[in-house]
Amino acid sequence: MSEADLDQVMDLERAIFPYPWRRSFFLSDLNRPKGFSIVADDGGFIIGYAVAWGTEETHLANLAVSEHERGKGIGAKLLDEVVAFAQRSKANSMYLEVRVSNTIARRFYAKRGFVPTYLRKGYYESGEDAVIMEKEIQEEDKG
Ligand SMILES: CC(C)(COP(=O)(O)OP(=O)(O)OC[C@H]1O[C@@H](n2cnc3c(N)ncnc32)[C@H](O)[C@@H]1OP(=O)(O)O)[C@@H](O)C(=O)NCCC(=O)NCCS
Asked: What whole-number distance in Å separates Cα of residue 86 and Cα of residue 91?
């Protein structure tokens, strides 16, 4: 992801999430040491993105795919890139927060080795709880 991507990323973010990140969040993550952000691009159109950071523990902070492009493996590819970043960072684990009501995403992560570990009460601005899901990064997987 680069600064030039942010107009399109923000359009998607606003369309997808009821409480979207501000542009400044993405901008600061672009410049964050130990940060990783990536877009999925289809002929100049951004159709998905992921943002993560951390060293010992990688935090997957944002992952989204355009509604019309879901179910085609794009989310899985973006997640693979974040796992590869975690491996390069020699992280022991990776974690994320997901809305309790987001059954599609919870299933998506569970199928890819993430285990629900605990509930963060009232985590979202709406008051909804977050499920924390974690995945161990295996020693032999690390770069
Ligand atoms: C979660 C998300 C990133 C997955 O992206 P994606 O590109 O659809 O992911 P994939 O195509 O790799 O896999 C989608 C999986 O969801 C399943 N799925 C279930 N219902 C679906 C639906 N209505 N539309 C699309 N996929 C659906 C697919 O069958 C697939 O499962 P599989 O691994 O068994 O094949 C995407 O749904 C999304 O952007 N959701 C909104 C934002 C969000 O919730 N982000 C996560 C916040 S923690």
From this structure: 5
Which of 79, 69, 80 minimizes the C-alpha distance to 16? 69
Cα–Cα distance for residue pair 81/93, rounded to 1 Å: 15
Question: How high is the pLDDT of residue 55?
Answer: 87
Element spanning 94, H or E: strand 93-99
Which amino acid residue places its CA nearest to atom 8 of ligand 1? Answer: 70
pLDDT of residue 49: 98
pLDDT of residue 138: 79
CB–CB of 46/36 below 8 Å?
no
**Ligand 1 pocket, residue 71 CB under 6 Å:** yes
Q: How far is the CA of 69 from the centre of ligand 1 (A)?
A: 9
pLDDT beyond 70 at 139: no
Residue 65 Cβ contacting ligand 1 at under 6 Å: yes
Say if ligand 1 is within 6 A of residue 110 CB. no
Task: Report the CATH fold assignment for 3-141.
Answer: Aminopeptidase (3.40.630)
